[in-house]
Each structure stands twice: as C-alpha cells, then as structure tokens.
Amino acid sequence: MGIMKKKTSWSKLVLIVILLIWTIFPIYWMISLSVRNSDELRSAIPLLPQSFTFDHFLRLFKEKDMGNALSNSLQVTFISLFFALLFGLASAYVLSRKRLQVKISKPTLFWILLIRILPPIAFAIPLYLIMTRLGLIRTKIPIISAHIMINLAFIVWFMITFYLSLPQEIEDSARIDGATELQLFSRIVLPLVAPGIASVAILSFMTSWNEYLYGVIFVQSPKNYTIPLVLATLNSEQELAEYGLIAAGGVISLLPIMLFVIFAQNYLISGLSSGAVKE
Q1: Using one digit for the tens of pLDDT, what is the confidence trace for 206-234?
Q2: Cβ atoms within 10 Å of 93's Cβ, excluding its own
Q3: Which residues contact 246 (CB under 8 A, 6 or more apart)?
Q4: For residue 83, what are the CA distances in angstroms to 17, 146, 199, 243, 268?
Q5: Which of 41, 151, 196, 275 could form a disulfide with 204 if both were Cys (CB 3.0 to 4.6 A apart)?
Q6: Architecture of the domain made up of 64-275
Q7: Positive or negative, the Cα torsion across 41, 259, 254, 19?
C-alpha cells in the first residue's frame, strides 16, 4: 500500500509539473523574446536570453503610440466596467428578489441570456447604425457602450446566484430595523456578496481589456486605438518578423490583467467557489 501511494503521489507531481510548464512556458517565452536584442532574434534563438534590452518597449511607445493605446484601453475598460457593475448589480438583485410588479422577470432573463449566446457581430450592426445617426461614431462612446452590453448580461447572470444564496431573514431583519431599500442594498447586501462582485469584476475586466471585434468596427481614428488594435497592426507584412516588438506588445497587454488578478485573487477564488455552492 505504501509503495502504491508513493507511485500515485509521484505521478500527480509529474502531472502538475507538466501542466505548469505547459501553462507558464508560453508566457516565459514571450517575456524572454521581448528583452532580447534584434541580432539575437535573427539567429537560432536559445532557450535562455543571451542579451538584455528594453529597446522593443521603447520603440512601441515612440513609434506605435502604445502610451496612447494604453490610456484608451484603461479608459474604455474602467468606464464600461463601472457602468456595467452599476446597472448589473442592481438589476440582478431586483430579478433575484422578484420585486417587479409586472411579471417580466423570466422574459427579461431570457433576453439577457440571448445577449450572451448570440455572436457579438449580431449586435454590432444595429449599434453601429445607432451611433452613426447620433454622430458619435468617431468617439469612444460606441466601444464603451458595446463593452457595457456584453459585460452587463454576464454580471446579471453571475450575480443572481450570489443574491439567491443570501438568507432572506437578513433582509427582513434590516427592514424591521427601519432600513430603506437603498440602505439595505448598499450597506447589507453588497458587502455580503463582495467576493462575487470582485470575481465578476475581474472576469469582466479581462473580457473588456482583450475585446477586439467591437474595437475594429467602432474605432475610426488611430488616436482612439486600444491595445488589441495596436497589437493587430504589428502583424502586418512589414512588422511580422519583428518578434521582439510583438512580444513586447504582448507583455504590456498582459501586465494590467496580471496585476489586477494578483491583488484580487483571493476574492476571485472565494467568489467562484461560493457561487458554486447551493444552500
């Protein structure tokens, strides 16, 4: 029995190591390519860097206007995330508690689910026509609106599970103590579902940060380019051999998500696990 347990533990360890290498190696390779000089990248590329430089990062900011793209991505992501959370958290709470006088909860949930399952391109044309008629097509408003739309449906569906897991007695006690609906929602309900809010915020942040399709359709001016659009321009025939430049762009795109997840990973883990438990 002891030998069997040792074999099982060793096999698990080997499997974990393989999975870690499989997951981490592409990230390591991207980072290592981004800090090698151009001469090293033109020859047979060794596993470990033989040179070190930040020239590729500097070129991105000087030649490709990466600083402006980073600013645009941050603006679009955080503004859309703020409004998606603002409307999504409130909508999910109302739908989970069936506070609507008219029985439209089920049809509303159906339409929200429809937004999630239909391809994004299905909403692009109507939204494009609306923004064109309003004269907003050359601003950031169309792409922000598109990000709000795709994240709002996800937030509502994700948060309904958390609201349903809260004991109704907590809210009843608060009402007896004289709490208004706004006080009940903001001071009691939201703190109790904080792990879920953090989880859905991280996942929505990643969705918005990496979104490319709506950016291609709605961004009309290079001054409004987001990071995915700048990275796409690096895949032209002229830039295709610039491995260091492309890798540096990937590193810059990855950093905000990594920092966001690192600081909120405990909330993400607890939120995803608690949302899966049904009392």
Answers
A1: 899 999 989 888 888 888 899 999 988 88
A2: 22
A3: 231, 234, 235, 239
A4: 41, 12, 16, 37, 20
A5: 151
A6: Orthogonal Bundle (1.10)
A7: positive
**How would DSSP label each residue in 153-217?**
HHHHHHHHHHHHHS-HHHHHHHHHTT--HHHIIIIIIHHHTHHHHHHHHHHHHHHHHH--HHHHH
CA distance 260 to 200: 12
In sequence order, what are the residues at sequence separation of 6 or more whose Cβ sits closer than 8 angstroms to the Cβ of residue 197?
Answer: 85, 89, 159, 190, 271
Contact 274, 195 (CB under 8 A): yes
Distance CA 250, CA 231 (A): 8
Nearest residue to 100 (alpha-carbon basis) of 91, 113, 88, 87: 91
Show Cβ contacts of residue 25 under 8 Å, excluding neighbours closer than 6 positions.
none
At position 213, the amino acid (one-letter code) is L
Low-confidence winner among 16-25, 40-49, 111-120 (lowest mean pLDDT): 111-120
The amino acid at residue 258 is: M
pLDDT score of 98: 64
Alpha-carbon separation of residue 203 from 151, 207, 215, 248 (angstroms): 9, 6, 19, 24
* Helix/strand/coil for 230: helix
Q: Would you say residue 201 has pLDDT above 50?
A: yes
Query: Residue 178: what are its φ and ψ, rounded to 5°?
Result: 100, 10
